[in-house]
Design a protein that fits this description.
34% helix, 4-stranded antiparallel β-sheet, 462 residues
Length: 462
């Protein structure tokens, strides 16, 4: 019988900063060579599980634990982060917070330098690992010059140099477009095949993770493991819907077409589906009926117009060329594209952080190119990709209330507005918590609350 590389036995944990536990009675074994997906809503405890495995708990995030946890046969609380790093390699969801070196090569070599590896051997290992993750042509680049997908490769290379037995990924797809996310999952799969390490992926983007084989899925809810079963069985039935987790869209489409989700369908991924001729016909008929049932377009006023905008961070390189589009009042619009396509640059131009080299930007028909960032902020709310770059207050309540302090509202009016906004964003139970106690996803909700509390004009949200 195989011995588990990670074993939780009736384990519980409570952060020092919190009034109640985050984890309750966790029983979970993970074996060498397994690939396990840990899923759950923001705040369900899935990232805390990861912090227990890699030693951030209790050494970086103090608190009280109950039960027993062993990693590689040792209890983390009797070890150290340094010792655990030789068993568990971690790739964080915020890759920028993980970089140490001034260049890609230096960052990959960091663990080897700590272990006093000779330089000749170090360079050889760095070159080999960089080639494995296809980042060898960027060793002299600074990490901040890379795209999101490239940063993931550097982080993965940095933990691979130690030949760890466990690879832990905490929301590795959080800042990646679907194409880069698929490439990352393929890369993780390839690395596991070559190293034989156990892989733990903490992620809520199930459809992207399931692009490659996953042995089993563990579902977290309010600090408890509510489901732990093989992938095929997990995706059958209504488990995700019952726990408020968005299921893969191809499964939703099958339900709309009247097809029950069973294990016989092989529901691990859209490419693995085995539909009968009758079921295929049902899907096509549903799609054709749904495509033709759209409501007639209503005439609405124009809100934002981007007119032949071009921009480059340097005179030699144009990041955006002749971009034009219009957004009407009440519309919900997605701007999509691969990492590095210019999506964030376009947002910066609209908000005034950068100025276009050509073209115009109009809000409700008025040219706003001469408006300051502060003037635009009264009409345009901006939520950044990384919430840590926006949050400036230690407490949740203070962060959300901050935007109201410069106005003429009374303390009671501010209290009412903040409470209402926190309830809308699902943060009211945490209103007295420090921001540091939140998960990455919850921090994103805090930044959204900081915009919504200002109550942008109603016509923006009709």
């Amino acid at each position: 019988m195989r011995e588990a590389i990670i074993s939780f036995q009736d384990y519980g944990f409570q952060y020092t900063a919190q009034s109640k536990p985050t984890l309750y009675h966790i029983n979970l074994d993970i074996y060498p060579g397994e690939k396990v997906l840990i899923a759950g809503a923001s705040g369900s405890g899935k990232s805390t599980i990861g912090s227990c495995i890699n030693g951030l708990i209790p050494f970086a995030y103090p608190g009280e634990s109950t039960g027993k946890l062993t990693v590689g046969g040792r209890e983390p609380k009797k070890s150290s982060i340094f010792e655990l790093s030789h068993t568990v390699g971690t790739v964080l969801q915020d890759t920028d917070g993980q970089f140490i070196g001034l260049t890609v090569g230096e960052d990959i070599a960091f663990a080897l330098e700590n272990s006093c590896v000779a330089q000749d051997k170090m360079k050889k290992i760095v070159d080999e690992v960089a080639k494995l993750v296809d980042i060898d042509h960027h060793l002299q680049y600074a990490p901040h010059e890379l795209s999101g997908g490239q940063k993931q490769r550097v982080s993965l290379a940095g933990v691979m140099v130690d030949e760890v037995k466990v690879l832990l990924f905490d929301e590795p797809l959080a800042n990646l477009d679907p194409a880069a996310g698929r490439t990352t999952i393929e890369l993780i799969d390839m690395v596991q095949e070559r190293t034989g390490a156990a892989v733990i992926i903490i992620e809520h983007r199930l459809e992207d993770v399931l692009w490659k084989k996953v042995d089993r899925i563990v579902l977290m809810d309010e600090g408890n493991i509510v489901v732990d079963m093989p992938t095929k069985a997990f995706l059958s039935g209504n488990i995700l819907l019952e726990h408020g987790i968005r299921e893969p869209l191809y499964l939703t489409a099958l339900r709309y077409a009247g097809i029950p989700i069973t294990q016989e369908l092989e529901p691990q991924h859209v490419d693995s589906l085995k539909l009968s001729d009758t079921q295929t016909k049902m899907v096509r008929e549903w799609y054709q009926d749904d495509s033709g049932s759209g409501e007639a377009q209503k005439e609405v006023a124009q809100l934002l117009k981007v007119d032949h905008v071009s921009f480059g961070y340097t005179p030699e390189t144009m990041n955006l060329r002749d971009v034009s589009f219009t957004i009407n009042q009440g519309e919900m619009v997605s701007i999509v594209g691969r990492n590095g396509a210019g999506k964030s640059t376009l947002a910066k131009l609209i908000c005034g952080f950068e100025k276009p080299t050509a073209g115009g930007i109009y809000l409700e028909g008025r040219d706003i190119l001469t408006d300051t960032i502060k003037e635009r902020a009264k009409r345009i709310g901006y939520v950044m990709q990384n919430p840590n770059q926006m949050i400036s207050k230690p407490m949740i309540w203070d962060e959300v209330e901050m935007a109201l302090l410069s106005g003429n509202m009374t303390a009671e009016e501010r209290k009412e507005r903040v409470e209402e906004t926190l309830k809308i964003c699902g943060l009211y139970p945490f209103r007295k918590w420090p921001v540091s106690a939140l998960s990455f996803g919850q921090k994103k909700r805090v930044t959204i609350a900081g915009i919504l509390v200002q109550r942008p004009p109603d016509d923006y949200f009709r």
